[in-house]
Specification:
The chain is mostly helical and about 300 residues long. It has a domain at about 55-165: V-type ATP synthase subunit C fold (Up-down Bundle). About 65% of the residues lie in helices and about 0% in strands. It contains 14 helices and no strands. α4 (about 60-85) runs antiparallel to α9, α12 (about 240-260) packs antiparallel against α13 (about 270-290) and α13 (about 270-290) packs antiparallel against α14 (about 295-305). The two termini are about 15 Å apart.
């Protein structure tokens, strides 16, 4: 892992200094070039080496469990690609925000070049991949948020069922908390968009965010968040904006993953490591952009804390 002082110092470094400092970390062997795209490629390459090969280190049910964790990156990458296309971003811009997963690079590149959702669904023709069937089924949805929720619903239904079948309670508990976090985030988005018909946006499988709480928050009743006091989601109960909520949920989920470090006979240790490395990579990419565009430190300080 990159030591914490690196992130604090990077808040005030120029881009050349940032790249040089990054070269002195475990990412050094992966840096080829001194541009922003080179930093993104270094992060992706490092993640592939340090995280992408984890399933090859174990066998049997443990390999299935670790693969299940990497599928989460596929979900996040697919969302990032679809959001980028909806925003008119170039394939290069989108690729700079992708994280490691199970999909081959050639397939990811083809998805990046696909012109629309239906074309991405056609590219993702993998019979055994849980997101492939989900995307084909939801490709006709006009609402981007509804499309993402449909992907979430299929992904978490598959992940929760598989974690329980593999007898991995740590993973099942983590995925359940992620479902709650996803529902809270969706409720805040619906409130901001002024969507009153919330049916179909709720993802089953969580343990703390009920459909009633979801609907109240989506309707703008943030006082309903007090019901989360005394639960693992308590740090998010005071959030009143999407930014505040996402920062609180990120910490909640990182703390939950860290508990997996005690699960030495299960996949919890891999869960903790993968989530730490993903957060590390996200911080590096964000700090690289702060330095590259010479943004004030306080613009990103909260996001990398």
């Amino acid at each position: 892992m990159v030591p914490e002082p690196f992130f604090q110092q990077a808040l005030n470094q120029s881009f050349p200094d940032f790249v040089r400092a990054l070269g002195d970390t475990v990412y050094g062997p992966d840096i080829v070039g001194d541009g922003l795209a080179d930093v993104d490629r270094a992060v992706a390459s490092h993640m592939q080496r340090m995280v992408g090969d984890l399933p090859g280190l174990v066998t049997g049910n443990m390999r299935e469990a670790v693969n299940l964790l990497l599928l989460q990156a596929d979900l996040n990458n697919l969302k990032t690609i679809l959001r980028g296309k909806a925003a008119g971003q170039s394939p290069e811009e989108i690729k700079g925000r992708l994280v490691g997963g199970t999909l081959p690079e050639v397939l990811v590149n083809a998805m990046l070049q696909a012109p629309d959702v239906a074309s991405v669904a056609q590219v993702l023709q993998l019979p055994t991949h849980p997101l492939a069937k989900a995307l084909r089924a939801a490709a006709n949805l006009a609402d981007p948020l509804a499309l993402e929720v449909a992907l979430d619903r299929d992904f978490y239904a598959n992940s929760l069922e598989k974690a329980r079948r593999l007898r991995e309670p740590t993973l099942a508990s983590y995925f359940g908390l992620q479902v709650d976090a996803t529902n809270l985030t969706t409720a805040f988005k619906l409130q901001a968009l002024g969507v009153t018909a919330t049916e179909g946006y709720f993802v089953p499988g969580g343990g703390f965010v009920s459909p009633v709480l979801f609907n109240r928050v989506a309707a703008g009743d943030f006082a309903a968040m007090e019901a989360l006091s005394g639960t693992p989601l308590a740090p998010a109960s005071a959030a009143r904006s999407l930014g505040e909520l996402e920062r609180a949920l990120r910490q909640v989920l990182l703390n939950k993953a860290a508990q997996g470090g005690k699960d030495t006979l299960g996949a919890g240790l891999a869960l903790d490591y993968i989530r730490r490395k993903e957060w590390e990579g996200a911080r590096i990419r964000l700090l690289a952009r702060r330095a590259y565009y010479n943004l004030p430190a306080d613009v990103v300080a909260k996001e990398v804390a």
